[in-house]
Specification:
The protein is α/β, with parallel strands linked by helices. It has 12 helices and 11 strands. Strand 2, helix 2 and strand 3 form a beta-alpha-beta unit. One of its GO terms (molecular function) is serine-type peptidase activity.
Amino acid sequence: MVQPIHNQPQPIIIQNHHHGSILWRIAAAIGWLGLFFCVPIILGLMISSASYYNTTEGVSEKFFAGSKTASDKIAVINVTGVIMEGHGYVRKQIDLVREDKDVKAVVVRVDSPGGTVTGSDYILHHLKKLKEERDIPLVVSMGAMATSGGYYVAMAVEDEENSIFAEPTTTTGSIGVIIPHYNVAGLMKEYNIEDDSIMSHPRKQMLTMTREMSEEHREILQEYVNQAFTRFKDIVKEGRPAFEKDPEKLDVLATGEIFTANQALDNGLVDQIGFIEEAIDRVAELADIDPKKTRVVTYEQPAALFDLGLAQNQALSYDKLLEMSAPKAYYMSSYLPPVVSSFPFGRSK
């Protein structure tokens, strides 16, 4: 009799993966942790790189007038407030216009009493360069004030006819140069205070407030002012070609005197009495575009902490006091240029 064959039970082998699982989890955790730290670093480097090459620093375009759907644009570049350095807000606007091929014309909106010689000249240079590089028309619209360095900047129109518009209440002119100087030697003597500075040469202290200026030093500084003044008048002749033919007329006007809009018009300092809308129409005509079918844009910079009331008071910071006390020549309609803050250049800087 054949006995049935019973299958022998197979031993059950239990594999313990617990040790491998822990290692895997540790490796995964390290990987995620590394990713957690690397992503912000990579993003930071990307932002830093973008910021390094970005000259506009958050300045953004804003619709101003015309057609909201048009691709062709007229750009309004604002030069507002006291001109200090020149390479701030105004330069950022210029850079945006230069890069935007949809911009077919530019209106420079000037509302400034002027500022430093260097800052005013810097802005003028870059406006003329923009006009040349992009081969687009440029006109000027004056706001409440376009005096001294503000008028200097307006000469970016060069020899374009009918290109400078002043509003009925605009104040302009003040063609001239000033180096501020104050003499407090008498006050110091009253309080028994003496200037005991050590210097390499007496001329190092030509503009010190603590001593009366010598005639020798005054003559040196006067020659400096004269050269800056000559350049100012040469620039005016470029923007107002009629004065090239009649320089004596410019000499009569270039005394630092300010003018009303009507006086400026009568003397050939501006071309028309009109608002920014008339300036836009004129530049559209020069660009051969329809202003109603064109998008007019302006540029805004983000609110700074100082504007939001979140920054510390910078008015009396040591570096600002040094900046204000440094000797500078000004194309400016004011007797106190060194005590005006460059915040926020109006915003022109």
